[in-house]
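Duplicate of #3305? Posting structure anyway:
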């Protein structure tokens, strides 16, 4: 069954109608988000795509409705809203995925050997910056394995490799989020210090890799 197109609205009309909680606007937004989720999740999930998309659309709708004040009008409203919905769905799928995966899989190959995280082997810098970035990443890789404790290294790779949620990492390591945050903070501080001392990279360059989380 083909879903009819939603009513055509410009950005201001969307904002006005949704802020007024107009039922038709909410229904139209829900239909648009559902279409976007179906397209984004196709090929990414196993099971009934329609059911999975329906599972996410309500959470996505609430997120969009709660974020209206952050819309700056730099794109079409529906484009912005669908990006939020897709982020909600993929983040939730990733959290569920990592709950069933051991942290050992982040630091060892199937043969039991440590491997290089994807962050360190897939630079996204422009061609002019690629050589410098590669050098920085090689130093990062070396320092992760030479300068960090085993627990710091395990946590750092888990967070950097695929963005495993901090709560999940904490559970797998038998600790709590606050203690894990402190562990990661100390690891980042150590990495920044050693990058500056040994490799001559600036604090700004190091922060670009290790800030956040």
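Output from current build:
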């Amino acid at each position: 069954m083909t879903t009819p197109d939603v009513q055509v609205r410009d950005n201001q009309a969307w904002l006005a109608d949704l802020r007024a909680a107009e039922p038709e606007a909410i229904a139209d937004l829900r239909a648009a988000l559902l279409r976007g989720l179906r397209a984004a999740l196709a090929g990414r999930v196993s099971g009934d795509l329609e059911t999975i998309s329906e599972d996410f659309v309500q959470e996505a709708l609430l997120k969009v409705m709660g974020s209206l004040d952050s819309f700056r009008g730099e794109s079409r409203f529906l484009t912005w809203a669908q990006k939020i919905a897709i982020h909600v769905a993929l983040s939730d799928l990733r959290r569920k995925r990592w709950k069933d995966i051991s942290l050992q899989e982040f630091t060892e190959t199937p043969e039991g050997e440590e491997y290089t995280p994807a962050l360190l082997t897939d630079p996204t810098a422009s061609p002019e910056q690629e050589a410098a970035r590669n050098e920085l990443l090689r130093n990062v890789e070396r320092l992760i394995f030479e300068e960090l404790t085993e627990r710091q290294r395990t946590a750092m790779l888990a967070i950097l490799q695929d963005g495993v949620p901090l709560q999940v990492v904490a559970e797998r390591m038998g600790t709590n989020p606050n203690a894990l945050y402190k562990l990661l903070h100390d690891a980042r501080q150590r990495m920044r210090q050693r990058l500056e001392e040994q490799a001559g990279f600036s604090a700004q360059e190091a922060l670009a890799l290790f800030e956040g989380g």
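Confirmed duplicate; merging threads. Confidence is low (pLDDT under 50) at residues 108-112, 114-123. The CA atoms of residues 14 and 152 lie 47 Å apart.
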